[in-house]
Amino acid sequence: MSHSSPLLEISDSRASGLVNAAKRPRGRPRKTADERDDGNRRKVLIAAAAKLFRTQGFDATSTRDIAAAVGMHSGSPFYHFESKSALLCAVMEEGMRAAIARQDAALKAAETGEPNAREKLAVLVRNHFDVLLGPGSDFIPVMLYESRSLSQAQRGLMATLQGEYEAPWVPLLQALHGQGLLKADVKLSRLLIFGALNWSVQWYDRSKSASLDTLAQAAMALFIQETA
Asked: How many CB atoms neighbour CB 50 within 10 A?
């Protein structure tokens, strides 16, 4: 006669329950607080990273610094971004897409007055100073000076977004060149204008420097003649 060990004996009801449990599809694990608030937490992380990357530099900023700035545990940013480089790319992409949207809105608002090419360019220049130096302006300076830390694929994305942002400038510069108000080659003019405007992030001090309106007027007077 064989004898069963009490430790291996399972009642019929319990055995049935175990079989049913094994067959029951496993549900998705309950979301954590970070998962439930993923979109907002990403935005908060991106904004904090933009500020730190701008003030401290990408290399000198750790994920621990970023996490501390938003009250998260040191490893939490990696739930939202696979690496610090991915977070840097997200900062730049957020900045470029916001800049494109802001520029489109500025041009649309200006269209009501049927502006000429010079007036439209003045709108773009003034808006660009807002993008560079206005409230929440940490994103674009990071793109200007930390692009070396991006991968080749990430640089390709930034180049595409930059091209989209600069596209409305080109026909205006061409029109002004045709009118004799822009004397230099259009491509070189575009590069020089953006170079001069972008450099303002290095020296502009809101408390000591001229207003953004004055900066825009000076830039227009420097690059574009009033009459042919």
From this structure: 26
Query: Rounded to a whole number, what is the largest CA-CA distance in the chain?
Result: 114
The reply to whether the predicted model has a pTM over 0.70 is: yes
Taking the domain 92-223, which CATH number applies?
A: 1.10.357.10
Convert the pLDDT of each residue in 63-90 to its tens digit.
Answer: 899 989 988 887 887 788 888 999 999 9
Nearest Cα neighbor of 89 from 146, 41, 7 is: 146
Q: Using DSSP, state whether 189 is helix, strand or coil.
A: helix
User: Phi first, then psi: what are they for 56, rounded to 5°?
Assistant: -105, -20
> Which two three-digit tokens encode residue 97?
């897409």
User: Contact at 8 Å (CB) between 224 and 190?
Assistant: no
Residue 32 has pLDDT above 80, yes or no: no
Outline where the chain has alpha helix (H).
12-23, 33-36, 38-56, 63-69, 77-80, 84-110, 117-133, 139-146, 152-166, 169-178, 186-198, 200-203, 212-223
Instruction: Quick: pLDDT tens for 166-181.
Output: 999 999 999 999 999 9
